[in-house]
């Protein structure tokens, strides 16, 4: 078995720093080491001690760089990579003007292959080792994404986006074809290598009750899969959902009534929740996904991270590209910090790093496997240079402790801060 020893400042977690005192959950070693054997982390501890104990390992000494679990993006749309940063619209107009015309191109397998490869390479260059992606209605777009991820050894979660109304003709399936295509793709991909399939109704406005029911039935046949969708992102969207589903108690009920609410549900955005929705999501142990750059870019609102963290909901962090305006989970953490400030809570850098790794992995029900720098976890690792630009360096040089050194990289860092990325125990070639 090939062994690699990475030496540097190592950061992991023993618990959730959003609950109780964050300091109790930190596993930090300023002279740490991570021993990789095959595709796993097989030992952690003092770097020099590991070096002495494993003379057969190849050693990379990262000095004072920060060795972290690879970032886990819990909600994004790889087909939107090409139209990220499109100007001037809010959600529904943004979908109709920019998103749907772009997604209509993904019936072309070559186009989908190119976008999938480009997106995964951009993610890796930004230190993200797992993506959770919506695809398009085209089954080809799902094959393209899983194949591109498999050739990069990445653990990914994805599914065919289902829509049978309120979308252009070229982007509509039906209740039956959404069920049939999703089922065939799920059987082809779920559990194959590092791939996981997520049943994916886009959001209630673009699915008829028949389609939601068909996908709810599919989920009951395959409850081990995740189900991903959008929930309560923008006020006009919520008003539209009320018109389309007059009998529903609230937005969540449009999923719940059709079997689309359970512990393995991933609900993106979840900004404008009613108290019944919060209680119900917490009761079933579902996950909500915070997409802060998207929420400011599309003008959606301010997610109540601390309020929701107090319930038993799990919370992931995500770029939501291309509604989100960055591929970087560092920039995403910075935006979560800014939204926290606007809501009156300054999130600690430890909490932000946890959200981008363990928090997202927990939302995906993959705790212990990804998003963790610890023995037994997959060796998906991101090494951050804490002095990557002159602006960051001059600030980090004054740092009084590790958090004061990490925070400038969270707030001002980008792909230049990503020194190396290891996926399933192999170092990625230089990507940026
Ligand atoms: N709601 C339904 N579809 C989308 C999408 O593609 N992006 C975002 N941000 N919200 C959505
Ligand atoms: Zn989304």
Distance between the termini: 30 Å
The CATH first-level class of the largest domain comes to: Alpha Beta
- How many strands, what sense, and barrel or not for the largest sheet? 9 strands, parallel
CATH architecture of the largest domain: Alpha-Beta Barrel
Percentage of residues in helical conformation:
25-40%
Question: The CATH topology of the largest domain is what?
Answer: TIM Barrel
Low-confidence stretches: none
Please tally the β strands and state the result.
16
Small-molecule binders here are: guanine, zinc ion
Percent of residues in β-strands: 15-25%
**Number of contiguous helices:** 15
Give the CATH H-level superfamily of the largest domain: Metal-dependent hydrolases
Write down the overall mean pLDDT: 97
Q: Structural class, from secondary structure content?
A: alpha/beta
Number of domains: 2
- Shape by Cα distribution: globular
Assembly type of the shown chains?
single chain
Q: What radius of gyration results from the CA coordinates?
A: 21 Å
Structural overview:
It is a single chain. Strands 5, 6, 7, 8, 9, 10, 11, 12 and 13 form a 9-stranded parallel beta sheet that branches. Helix content is 38%, strand content 23%. Strand 2 (26-37) and strand 3 (40-46) form a beta hairpin. The model has no long low-confidence stretch (mean pLDDT 97). Helix 12 packs across helix 13 and helix 14 packs antiparallel against helix 15. It starts with a strand and ends in a 5-residue tail after the last strand. The chain folds into 2 domains: 3-70 and 371-427, Roll (Urease, subunit C, domain 1), CATH 2.30.40; 71-363, TIM Barrel. It is of the alpha/beta class. Residues 75, 77, 230, 268, 320, 323 line the site of zinc ion.
